Each structure stands twice: as structure tokens, then as C-alpha cells.
Amino acid sequence: MKTTNKHIWIPALLSLSVIGVLPGCGAPAAGAVNGSEVPVQLIKLGQLSDSGMSGKIIPDQDIKVVSKVSGKVAAVSVEEGAKVKKGDVLIQLETDDLSKQAQQAESALTAAQARLADTRAGARTQEIDALNSALMQAQAAAQTAGAALQQAEAGFKLATDSYNKLRNQYDSSSSITREDMDKGTFEFEKAKAAYEQAQAGQKSAEAAVQAARAKLDLTKAGPTQNTLKALEAEVNRLTSVLDLANTTVANATITSPIDGTVVKRMVSVGEMAQAGAQIVSIVNMDQVQVELSVADSQIGKLQSGADVEVKVPNVPDKTFKGKITFVSPVSNANSTTFPVKVTVDNKDGVLFAGMVAEVRMAGTANAKLELPKSAMIKKDDKTYVVKAENQTAHLVEVKTEEKNQDWVYVLPNKELQASQQVVVNPNANIAEGTKLKAE
């Protein structure tokens, strides 16, 4: 082999591994060892590494259905394996307590709405008339209190004059006894108390008139904006409470979010479903995805949207059309490979999650074996390679296509497969059945 072409031994697309050190072209023929074994250098055949990428099939949609509320399971509508449509009921939780809470919220909202409506409508005629009547009554009471005050004032004035006169007489002469003076003082104090009480009654009556008039005026003016805002806020709050209660009742009926197949059910009737806990698993396999881990040497050749061909060993003699739908720009955490996803139509339902699939770019030729020209023998206008099996030589006729000056592609051959070993620079004297010894 020429040293100028040594780089051909390490192309990124090959998976060949060489056993031993290959001798240069034109090396002397190997001689027999121990009388029957011929020493040879061997090479393991490999395929083009970009001829196919292996991955595993996963569902296009894999939904873990959870309950939004906690509750006791009242009914289960599906079993594992059941086909469901989007919106089909899967699980029904008990709703008695939840429905009562919704009813209470609705009653509170109705009362708040009634209060707001009455306040907006303002006072009725009957209310205005009643307040007018109350004002007139207060005014009449004030007039009566005023008259009583005048009478009490006159009585107090008269009592004051009599007391002063009696006091002067008592102080200047002995004609007025102590008993007369005490009696006069009592009458004065009595009149004074009556006058003060009448003053208080008149003030109270005037205050009642002012209060009745203010209430009438306020009622005629209607509610303030702050009053209306407070009532509106209460209605909005109770509306939200009712909406939440109704949503909770609705969430007790758990439905399928997609069309698909139930593959797992975690609860039964009578058990408790916890909010946020998975209760049903549903997959949609109308389309599937092939998850690939692509080497960094190949990732640059893949683009999202590119068409690919998919082969599945469990579905022989059929090639599926696929499309690359995701090429990750970030490698896997623990390797230099990159996640890639391929979407494949599965309307026939022949592909199952977990199957291994091989993905090849559309238009890429089938995998070919690569062989160094130094491994070939020409005999009788035919080309052979020496395949080593169990330390025994087997001559295999091959047909090839040119790759470059040192390598060829081997056309499909049932007797020659990848990973098998062949002799490099074989001795022309090696024949079928010759015993070989790898160096």
C-alpha cells in the first residue's frame, strides 16, 4: 500500500477494524508454518456507517391523564386497551359535596345581585312617603317641645321672682319662717329642673327633625358611587366563587384529551383519586416517532423536514416513509451523540412502541461492504477474496465497484457479510480449505 494514501484507512464513514499490521504491497509470500498453517493478516469487513441509523419507536402522543381534583371514584368508563375519542369520559368522581358548594355559591351571588339591583333602582315612592311622614312627625314633636319650653320658661321665671322675694323677706324680717323658705326653695328648684328638661327636649326634637330631613334628602339623592362600587365588587367576587365551584364539579368528570388507546388505568371504583396524580395513560399511534442518537460526525448532514426511509426488522419487506421533525442543537448529557426524532405514519397500526427501526436518508444507496484492493485475488479472470472462518480459508468470488485507487465496494454477496474476516495480501497459493494463522 502507498504511504501517500494512508488517510484512506480512517474515513469517518467507515467502521472497519484491522487485525494485525498490514504489510506493504508486494510483500514476500508467506510460507507454511508447522507444515499446514499459513500466517496471514486479517481485516474485519464493515459497512458504511451512514447507511443507516438505528433508533427505537415511541408513540407520537403519550398522555398521562391526571385528576385536577381529589375525590372518590364513582365510575370507570374504560378498560386497558380501549379505543377512545377526544372528550370521551374516562373516570367519574363523586360530586355530591361539590354540587352543594356550587349551590351555596349560587345563592350568595343571587342575594348580592338583588342588593345591587335595589340600590341602583333607588328608593321607591312608598319609602319617600314614609320618610316625609317621619319628618312631619319630627317637626310636630319639635313644635310641641317648643311650646313646652315656653311654658317651662314662664314657670321658671315666675318661680324665680317668688323665690327672690321670699328670700329678701326671710333675710330682712322674721315674718317668713324657715319652713316657708324651704318650701319656696323647693318650688324654685322644681321650676328650674322643668325648664332645663324642656330645653333638652326641644334640642332633641330639633335634632330629630334634622336627622329625618337628612335621611329624606339622602334617599332622594340615591346611592353614592362608592356604595355602588362596593356592591359591584361583592357581586364580582361571588361570581368568581360560583365559577370556581362549577369548574370543580366539571373537573370531577375526567375526559380523554386525545384520540387514542388506553394503555394503563391506575384507579378503580371506590378508590381515592388524588389531585395531580396520574390515573390513566393514553397513547396515539396513528403516527409514531423514531428516537435516534446521532453521532457528531453525522449530525451536520441531517435537517429538520428532510425525508427519510425507515425499515423495521419486525415488519420485513416494507419500507416506511418518514420525515425528520427534530434535530437537537445540543448533544446528550453523557455522550457526544445528538437526539433526533423522525415522524412516521402508522395508520395501519403495524408499528408498536419499543420496536427497533433503521433510518436512512431518502435516496441513499443500500449499505455496501468496503474492501481494500490488496485483499483481492485474480484467478481465471475472476476476482476472489479469502474469507477466514474457524482458521480455515474459503475463497469467495466477488463483484466490485470502484471507490478509489485503493478501495472498492463489494456488490451484495450472500457469502460475504459485514464483520466477517478476510485475508489482506493473500498468498496466491492459498486454496479452499487452507489452514490459516493470524499474525
Automatic annotation (TrEMBL):
- Sorted UniProt keywords: Coiled coil, Signal
Q: Transmembrane helix: is it a keyword of this entry?
A: no
**Location(s) in or outside the cell:** Cell envelope
GO molecular function per UniProt: transmembrane transporter activity
Q: Which residues form the Multidrug resistance protein MdtA-like barrel-sandwich hybrid domain?
A: 63-283
Q: Which residues form the YknX-like C-terminal permuted SH3-like domain?
A: 369-437
For the CusB-like beta-barrel domain, which residue ranges apply?
290-363
- What InterPro entries would the database entry show? Beta-barrel_RND_2 (IPR058792), MdtA-like_BSH (IPR058625), RND_pump_MFP (IPR006143), UPF0194_transport (IPR050465), YknX-like_C (IPR058637)
Cellular component GO terms held in the UniProt record: cell envelope; membrane
Keyword Coiled coil among UniProt keywords = yes
The domain of life is Bacteria
Signal peptide bounds: 1-26
PANTHER family annotated for this entry?
EFFLUX SYSTEM COMPONENT YKNX-RELATED
Concerning its family, UniProt says: Belongs to the membrane fusion protein (MFP) (TC 8.A.1) family.
Q: What is this protein called?
A: p-hydroxybenzoic acid efflux pump subunit AaeA
Q: Give the organism the record lists.
A: Paenibacillus solanacearum
